[in-house]
Amino acid sequence: MKRFLLTLALFLLSFSSPSHAAPVRIKDLVEFDGVRGNDLVGYGLVVGLNGTGDGLRNAPFTEEIMSNILERLGVNITGEQLRPKNVAAVLVTATLPPFARAGSKIDVTVSAIGDAKSLLGGTLIMTPLNAADGQIYAVSQGAIIAGGASADGDGASVVKGVPTSGTIPAGARVEREVEFNFAGLDQMRLALRSPDFTTAGRVETAINAAYGRRVAQMLDAGTVQLSIRATREPSAAHALGKIENILVEPQRKARVVVDQRSGTIVMGEDVRISRVAVSQGNLTIRIEETPRVVQPNPFSDGDTIVVANTQASLNEDPGIKLAEVPSGASLSEVVAGLNALGVAPRDLIDILKTIKAAGALHAEFVVN
Asked: Where is the signal peptide (predicted)?
């Protein structure tokens, strides 16, 4: 009866009208060539820790940077042996956003590189942030907001989250701007985040339709070239401000993503399955040991022995009987039918992997 209901449900659902992807703004599909951030990194010192800093014997670089900072502040510590426990050496990372101007502030992330136990309550001392060209583009300083907590005693300790890493919102001030003549651009390339010929063609068509003339041209599956001069807009900023809000219906590749650890399955609407038969069952083996003690007769020279008593059983759960999936059924319809029969998520993952191995699952299968 279950087999009949599953086959009937999948057969009826296979004739349902296919759904279409919702239109998406071009700004959510592409990256504009040249409009990008720049990674920054710096090496600094965190102070004010409550005895959770670096052990200077295990992290000599902490003592070195602390000495350099104090000497720049006019404190002579030559020949002194410093053993504080409230400082920690850290790496500071940030992203300089596009069109960031001098004086604006950006967020930074602070991570310990020594054996510090926690950065809670610490303050980052003025740290220059360099880009890949070696130039200083921002300077960071401020109180750290750590994302965890830790406590320890004489016999035990507990840690929640990652207290050795934290952030400083608006903790860096931009000191140098990235030179980029955006207003003087004559052409701009739009790079698709997920390259696809169909989507790139739709982006080209939508832009040309919005202007009523040919201003965009698809170069490949991931690039659409835009002529700023052909748009007749006052500037490149005006042109992109209009183009980025044009709606386009993207075309996605059929894909199934499976996370075996959590039993999560995510699938696209374009996944299809060819005609295939599915049968699945579970095998359970149970072995029980009940040893018995045998005593000798009274006044005899016998010994007490233990006699093994083993009971073994093998049960096979019928699971899913042989069920036929009609050709052209979507994966969501198959999963809905299997869920209606009470198939566990991990069993469902095994079924999908087997269908893919049989060549009946027409989609990219990604297992994490």
From this structure: 1-21
Render the burial of 81-99: b for 16+ CB within 10 Å, e for the rest. Answer: eeeeebbbbbebebebeee
321 to each of 4, 7, 284, how far by Cα in Å? 10, 11, 17
**What is the rounded distance in angstroms from the CA atom of residue 111 to the CA atom of residue 91?**
5
With CA atoms as reference, report the closest residue to 366 among 250, 281, 271. 271
pTM above threshold 0.70: no
Structure tokens at 259: 């996370």
What is the residue-wise DSSP string for 304-356?
A: -EEE--EEEEEEEEEEEEEEEEPTTEEHHHHHHHHHHTT--HHHHHHHHHHHH
pLDDT in tens, 140-188: 999 999 876 666 666 666 766 788 889 999 999 999 988 888 888 888 9
Strand, coil or helix: 158: strand
Give 12-81 as a DSSP string. Answer: HHTTSPPP-PPPEEGGGTEEETT---EEEEEEEEEE--SS-S--TTT-HHHHHHHHHHHHHTT---TT--
Q: Which helix (H) or strand (E) holds 141?
A: strand 136-143
Length of the chain: 368
Nearest C-alpha neighbor of 63 from the set 90, 42, 87: 87
Continuous segment of H or E residues that includes residue 6: helix 2-13
Integer Cα distance of 192 and 222 in angstroms: 5
For 280, the 3-state DSSP assignment is strand
Backbone φ and ψ for 237, nearest 5 degrees, come out as -65, -40
Distances (CA, A) of 294 to 91, 288, 301, 366: 71, 19, 14, 58
> Side chain identity at 172, as an amino acid letter?
A
- Planar angle of CA 147, 153, 155, nearest 5 degrees: 125
> φ and ψ at 197, to 5 degrees?
-65, -40
